[in-house]
Inverse folding.
């Protein structure tokens, strides 16, 4: 099988305390630590496991700036065979539909049996996979946590509320968005990264893809972020302060009062 | 005039709570908009819920077809495309069905898409201003949605005030004849129920719940000891189950268990809405997190900025000394 996996470079929520910039219209991105979107590692792992069984290739693709190349290399160190970087100033400010439009242009140049995305990325939208499928007129299933490959069709499990699983049969080619927990993504060490450090990764621009600049980017976007703000969430938690002993003494009082002890 | 259509999710003849929240969401988009409920399914369950919805919506469209008994997003999308006029706004829930349906529907309608909306500031001209969160709830943003050629919008369940009692006296319009071709390349097979685990976290009055902040599998013992001191059990967030450190039955959240403890100890949990979605009955939440900006502190009653690996053993021994 020829499998394409869409991956994205995102700020790492575990490593960062997010602050707004001085203008208040963006995050202060200067010191942010970035990594591969958590969900995408599961998608790449799944693709590699399928290809190990059925033969074929795994290609990883991203729409991003020059720095996004590092996430492609990381996924290639996991075992993806090829990487493609779609990069152009004209892509900046794209909404989900813009990203899907860019990906579609490249996908149509190849021949893929299976296209995987993560269930969601940093913006928590969960949109690119479903949009891509609709644009390509391929069937789609989101939140996939099980894949069984057959002949011309596959069986997929979707995770639904309460952790129940909805089993479906779906024809190939198709697009699936992958949920965490479907597998255990392999660890990538420095040595693995070094091995793929000099592999060439093609970079394609809007004109390489034959995209009209106004169909993507800021001008093509129907949904656009205006600003970041701090929501009024009421009072928030009562923060306990002092030495650890003092904090624990106060906490034990509260827990006793609330039936916790 | 803005036309809004709300897709009503239901199962076993009962509408999901979000059905009561769409009217408030629609009013925040545009008070003067027309609001129509749309239901797909088949048989008595469909009729029962459709009739109930006439108490909340001035117009209720039902599409009855055996191909729609189970809500397969591909089939539902086809039906909706034949019913919903161009330029309309479609509301769906940001749940596992809405996530399956909505992005593709927006493409086929050539409409804007806005996901997981928690608030609206209203329409001005053809621009709808809305609020949502990014980065697992760490930041909030305003978005501008160009609704000039319609929009598909998923709303976060629980974010809008549910309407109570009978607020409309609508009627059911049967559009089953308009649904068109409902063949699909994706076929629903069956539902596999989640496994029942060794411990039942849903019965506990107190839960010591751990998240990714536990850092390593070996550290789970530290949480087990605190739970033992508090005479209860350990529950967790999703990454702990994904890593196979605890079994699925211990997971709190929309894709895990719904729990109703009196006291919830959130240890190294950031507080994503999918996690908090499993926490009902307004428990007393104690959050311990090393990040003072963690979103969990916005919903917790007591917050402590600390490393849980150091904090939990100290708390355990203090409790054991009581
Ligand atoms: C469809 C869908 C369904 C989902 N269902 C669920 C669900 O049912 N349940 C669920 O939990 N999630 C669910 N999720 C995942 C959810 O979006 C979050 O990814 C998840 O809840 C994050 O878990 P966490 O808070 O443990 O991890 P993180 O978000 O990584 O947070 C870890 C926290 O620990 C803190 N920390 C790190 N180290 C320490 C330390 N040593 N001491 C103290 N604090 C520390 C960090 O500051 C951070 O705040 C679902 C997602 C999707 C898309
Ligand atoms: N810039 C991008 N480049 C490649 N794939 C992306 C990009 N943005 C999103 N995706 C894919 O879409 C998935 C869901 O992201 P989103 O729809 O943004 O929540 C991600 O896990 C990726 O697989």
């Amino acid at each position: 099988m020829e499998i394409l996996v869409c991956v994205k470079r995102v700020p790492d929520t575990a490593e960062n305390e997010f602050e707004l910039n001085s203008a208040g219209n963006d995050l202060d991105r200067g010191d942010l630590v970035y990594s591969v979107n958590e969900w995408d590692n599961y998608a790449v792992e799944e693709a590699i496991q399928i290809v190990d069984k059925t033969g074929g290739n795994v290609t990883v693709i991203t729409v991003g700036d020059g720095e996004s190349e590092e996430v492609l290399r990381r996924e290639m160190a996991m075992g993806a065979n090829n990487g493609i970087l779609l990069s152009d100033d004209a892509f900046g400010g794209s909404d989900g539909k813009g990203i899907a439009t860019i990906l579609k242009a490249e996908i149509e140049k190849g021949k893929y049996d299976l296209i995987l995305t993560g269930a969601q990325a940093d913006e928590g939208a969960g949109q690119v996979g479903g949009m891509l499928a609709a644009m390509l007129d391929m069937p789609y299933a989101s939140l996939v946590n099980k894949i069984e490959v057959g002949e011309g069709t596959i069986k997929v499990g979707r995770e639904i509320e309460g952790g129940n699983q909805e089993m479906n049969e779906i024809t190939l080619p198709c697009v699936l968005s992958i949920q965490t927990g479907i597998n255990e993504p392999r660890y990538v060490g420095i040595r693995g990264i070094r091995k793929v450090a000099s592999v060439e990764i093609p970079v394609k621009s809007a004109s390489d893809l034959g995209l009209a600049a106004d169909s993507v980017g800021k001008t093509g976007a129907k949904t656009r972020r205006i600003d970041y703000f701090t929501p009024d969430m009421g009072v928030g938690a009562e923060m306990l302060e002092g030495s650890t002993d003092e904090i624990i003494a106060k906490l034990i009082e509260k827990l006793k009062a609330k039936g916790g002890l | 005039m803005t036309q809004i259509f709300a897709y009503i999710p239901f199962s076993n003849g009962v509408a999901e709570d979000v059905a009561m929240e769409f009217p408030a969401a629609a009013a925040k988009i545009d008070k003067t908009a027309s609001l129509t409920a749309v239901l797909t399914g088949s048989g008595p369950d469909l009729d029962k819920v459709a009739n109930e919805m006439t108490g909340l919506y001035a117009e209720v469209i039902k599409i009855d077809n055996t191909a729609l008994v189970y809500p397969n997003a591909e089939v539902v999308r086809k039906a909706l495309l034949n019913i919903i006029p161009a330029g309309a706004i479609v509301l769906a829930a940001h749940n596992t069905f809405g996530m399956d349906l909505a992005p593709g529907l927006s493409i086929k309608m050539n409409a804007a898409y806005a996901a997981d909306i928690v608030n609206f500031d209203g329409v001005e001209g053809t621009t709808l201003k809305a609020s949502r969160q990014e980065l697992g709830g760490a930041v909030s943003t305003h978005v501008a949605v160009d609704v000039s050629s319609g929009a598909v919008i998923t709303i976060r369940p629980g974010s809008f005030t549910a309407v109570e009692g009978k607020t409309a006296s609508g009627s059911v319009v049967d559009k089953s004849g308009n649904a068109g071709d409902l063949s699909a390349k994706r076929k629903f097979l069956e539902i596999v129920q989640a496994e029942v685990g060794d411990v039942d976290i849903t019965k506990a009055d107190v839960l010591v719940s751990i998240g990714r902040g536990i850092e390593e599998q070996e550290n789970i013992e530290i949480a087990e000891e605190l739970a033992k001191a508090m005479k209860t059990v350990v529950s967790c967030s999703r990454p702990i189950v994904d890593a196979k450190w605890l079994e699925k039955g211990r997971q709190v959240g929309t894709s895990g268990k719904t729990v109703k403890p009196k006291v919830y100890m959130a240890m190294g949990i950031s507080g994503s809405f999918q996690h908090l979605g499993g926490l009902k009955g307004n428990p007393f939440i104690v959050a311990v997190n090393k990040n003072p900006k963690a979103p969990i502190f916005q919903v917790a009653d007591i917050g402590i900025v600390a490393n849980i690996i150091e904090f939990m053993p100290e708390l355990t021994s203090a409790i054991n000394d009581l």
Notes: The radius of gyration of chain B is 22 Å.
